[in-house]
Amino acid sequence: MSEIRVNKVINAAGTGSVELTQGATLPSGKTLSGAGDLNLTGIVTAASGSFTGSVSIGGTITYDDVTNIDSVGIVTAGKGFRATTGGIIVTAGISTLSGVEVPAGGLTITAGESYFGGGLSEKATIVANKLSAAANIDVSTGNVWYFSTNETTTGTPNLRWDGSTTLASKLATGDSVSVSIISKPNGAGYYAQMTIDGVAQTEEWNGGSAPASANAGGYDITTYQILKTGSGTTDYIVLANVSNFA
C-alpha cells in the first residue's frame, strides 16, 4: 500500500477542493474534523451520530428510538403515535383528532372547553341480576347500569368507584357525577335509599318524597345527580329521581 504525506490538498488550479472519484474511507478511531461545513446533496448513512449543537433539517427526517423531539413545525407520525409513559400534554392551541380510543387510564381535561362535532355514545353496564341481590354500582365501569332480572324486593344501591377504591377518593370538592339505574320493578322492587361507599346519604327527591311502593311493571330509571361539597363521608348533595316507563 502506498502513502501520500501532505499538509494540504487542493485542485490542479489551486482554487478549490479535490474530487474523490472513488470515495474515501476513514479507518476506525479516525475523525473528520474542522471549523468548516459539511455540505452533501446525497444520502448520509451512519451507525450513530452525536451533535453538540442544533441540527436543522430542511426536508423530512425519519428516525427511530430518540429521547426527545422538539419541533417548531408539524410532526407527522406516519404509523401512529404511542406514548408508553408520561402521557400527552398540550399546553396551547387546538388538538384535532379524527378518533380517540382510551383503553385504560381515562381522559382528563383540567381546563378549557371541549367540543364534540359528532355523536357521543356511552357504554352501559348490563347486569344479569336484580339490584336487590347485587347492590354495588361501580362507577369505574360506567354511569348507566341496567339490571335485567325482575325485582322481588326493595334494594339500596351502593355507589363506589370499584371494589377496592372509594368514590370519594375520585371526587374533589366541587366535582359532580351522575348515575342512572334501569331496573324492572315487577310490582315488588323500589329504591328509597342509597349509599356512597357504604355510607347512607340524605337524598333530595324530585317531587319531595322518596318512593314508597313499587311500580307494577315496565322499567324504572332511578337517577342520582351527586355533588361533593366537602371531605366528610356525607358531604354530598344527592338529587334523586325515579321514573317508570311501561
What does it look like?
This protein is mostly beta strands and 246 residues long. The protein has a domain at 125-245. The chain has strands spanning 125-127, 136-138, 144-150, 158-160, 176-184, 195-196, 199-200, 203-205, 219-228, 236-245. It is rod-shaped. The mean pLDDT is 87.
- Mean pLDDT reading: 87
Strand content: 15-25%
Helix content: under 10%
Q: Shape, please?
A: rod-shaped
Major beta sheet, specifics? 6 strands, mixed
Helix/strand structural class: mainly beta
* Strand order of the biggest β-sheet: 1-3-5-9-10-8
Q: Can you tell me the residue ranges where pLDDT is under 50 for at least 5 consecutive residues? A: none
Cα distance spanning the termini = 99 Å
Q: Tally of extended strands?
A: 10
**Count of separate DSSP helical elements:** 0
- CA-based gyration radius: 34 Å
> What is the helix/strand order?
EEEEEEEEEE
Task: Give me a quick take on this structure.
By secondary structure, this protein is an all-beta fold.
Could you list some keywords that capture this structure?
246 residues, mainly beta, six-stranded mixed β-sheet, four-stranded mixed β-sheet, 21% strand
Topology readout:
Elements: E1 125-127, E2 136-138, E3 144-150, E4 158-160, E5 176-184, E6 195-196, E7 199-200, E8 203-205, E9 219-228, E10 236-245
Parallel strand pairs: 1-3, 2-4, 3-5, 4-6, 8-10
Antiparallel strand pairs: 5-9, 6-7, 9-10
